[in-house]
Amino acid sequence: MKLDVIKLDGASVGSVDLDEALFGVEPRADILHRVVRWQRNNAQAGTHKVKTRSEVSYSTKKIYRQKGTGGARHGSRKAPIFRKGGIYKGPTPRSHGHDLQKKVRALGLKMALSAKAATGSLVVIEDINTDGKTKTLANQIKALGWKRALVIDGASVNEEFLKAARNIEGLDVLPTMGANVYDILRRDTLVLTKAGVEALEARLK
Fold first, then answer.
1. Do residues 9 and 130 make contact, with C-beta atoms less than 8 angstroms apart?
2. From CA 25, how far away is CA 32, in angstroms rounded?
3. pLDDT at residue 9 tops 90
4. Can you give the chain as a three-state secondary structure string?
5. Can you tell me the mean pLDDT for 168-182?
6. pLDDT of residue 104
7. Which of 3, 28, 52, 150 is 20 to 30 A from 137 (CA-CA)?
8. Domain coordinates of the chain in residue numbers?
9. pLDDT value at position 79?
């Protein structure tokens, strides 16, 4: 698969051959859904917590005598049936993460890349060298028509570009090892540097 390579100023600088095994896979919604769900569940903090009857603050004294009141027998104001009593079987801190096979995760990433290529939302750029100024980069992004874009660089991200991009709304920047299905799918445009393409091919082969 051939794709034109451009520069940040929009000028064309040739083309690049993209591996069909990475960028020509038929996307499957079920695989993408499984990988995104795995990602989001692993990212969930799971810190929700309620107090049980052993944790609420009340006296342990029996609230009234056992017999002769005409009411039900009770020993503790901490019981779940009372207002401000302990919660029965409420949420406790736990991990929401689950396992997913490496092959499925790799396949999901290939499908996400292929989905962007199939819809014409994939852009390959020569490099992301810039002067580090947000205004300059914002004007270039506007001229290129990238409204919600994810830029994936090589093993490390260009520091000047990262500095200029961090205050631009709708623009995310990741190194190759940070490339993931969720971030790729949630942005309208996927931008890969040539170094990023080479690193992704090396990672996924």
1. no
2. 12
3. no
4. CEEEEECCCCCEEEEEECCHHHHCCCCCHHHHHHHHHHHHHHHCCCCCCCCCCCCCCCCCCCCCCCCCCCCCCCCCCCCCCCCCCCCCCCCCCCCCCCCCCHHHHHHHHHHHHHHHHHCCCEEEECCCCCCCCHHHHHHHHHHHCCCCEEEECCCCCCHHHHHHHCCCCCEEEECHHHCCHHHHHHCCEEEEEHHHHHHHHHHHC
5. 93
6. 96
7. 3
8. 2-45+97-204, 50-90
9. 93
25 contacts 111 by C-beta, under 8 angstroms? yes
Q: What is the mean pLDDT of residues 121-126?
A: 93
The 10 Å Cβ neighbour count of residue 102 is: 8
The answer, yes or no, to whether residue 189 has pLDDT greater than 90, is: yes
pLDDT of residue 2: 87
Helix axes 29-43, 102-118, angle to 10 degrees: 120
Q: What is the pLDDT of residue 77?
A: 92
Mean model confidence pLDDT for the chain: 92
Which structure tokens are listed for 77?
A: 């104001």
CATH superfamily name and code, 2-45+97-204: Ribosomal protein L4/L1 (3.40.1370.10)
